[in-house]
Amino acid sequence: MAIQPKTRFLGTGHFLPDQIRTNLDIERLGVETTDQWIRERTGIRERRIAPDGMLTSDMAVAAAKRALEAADTKVSELDMIVVGTITPDMPMPATAAIVQRKLGAVDIPCFDLSAACAGFIFGLSIADAFIRSGLKKRVLVVGVELLSRVVNWSDRTTCVLFGDGAGAAVLGPSDDDRGILSTNTHTDGSLAESLMIQAGGSFMAVTPEVHLAKKDKISMRGQDIFRAAVKNLYSASQAAVDAAQMKNDQVDWVVPHQANLRIIDQVTDRAKYPKEKVLSNIEMVGNTSSASIPILLDQSLRSGKIKPRDVVLMCALGAGVSWGAALVRM
Ligand code: ACO
Description:
With 330 residues, this protein is of the alpha/beta class. It folds into 2 domains: 7-176, Thiolase/Chalcone synthase (Peroxisomal Thiolase, Chain A, domain 1, 3-Layer(aba) Sandwich); 181-329, Peroxisomal Thiolase, Chain A, domain 1. It contains 11 helices and 13 strands. The longest helix has 22 residues, at 222-243. Acetyl coenzyme *A (ACO) binds at residues 33, 37-38, 41-42, 116-117, 156-157, 160, 195, 222-223, 225-226, 229, 259-260, 263, 287, 289, 318-319.
């Protein structure tokens, strides 16, 4: 039987805006919260905020250029661009099309996918299917969010959580045993109302009243999402390891979505991953949704923490609710 080729990470990159907003800055904005509450309940100390005029596509392009350079891949070699985002430049066209134009790529399919914090995992699974089937050779997957513009800065239960940023990966066929070992993706639409931006689509137009009531901003039933995250991230992570016929102690690094340190601890404690194998940057960047995993992955690769051939487990859950996991030999 022919050996199924794998999909390899050829290079990664990330971009974070320079402006830092600390927990104390949020207190100073008049939000009824404290640095202590935010740190103890979430693990977040600060997050990055994109300046006025910077677009989601600008951050995506900055991360993509770094990933292309790391992958030693020319823009002309790309044959598909997938952008995971819930904060596109505009509803239409796809941010991926704008990224294509800004990168200078031509005549390749480019599309957005909306799986919130699970966007990068969903993007990986799509790229993996196209590459393993032989239909595509070089796929750029980007996770990018400009959440500071859709956060209700007077809602303490959400505004303290989110930050802006982008992460990207260039994927291609592997010629050895390195690459994506398994992926899984899931959605439970019965929890759709637990995390949403209600207005701005066919459900609710953005009228002055709707805008005043902040229904065009993020609202969340935090505890519903918390419970769903702990349960589903554990099961998806175990499924990813099982599908590769491996054991948890063969995983070198866990790169979980950075939503809340308590979620990460509960999931990885249950799966018995030692603390030192669980990577995190939530303290410095907060929850950057679909950008969260590729930012942390790129930082960990560039710092030399994750080395070639290390086995990395990624898992994420977000609005939808959608979630998934991927196991990769880097
Ligand atoms: N500062 C001070 N107090 C606060 C704050 C704050 N920033 N936020 C909430 N509180 C208060 C609440 O009002 C509540 O007060 P009350 O008891 O007087 O009513 C109290 O703290 C406890 O509230 P809980 O909601 O029970 O707090 P919890 O410990 O659950 O933490 C949090 C809230 C951080 C939102 C948590 O539920 C969480 O992380 N949920 C998951 C978020 C997530 O994973 N999102 C991922 C997807 S994001 C995406 O897809 C874009």
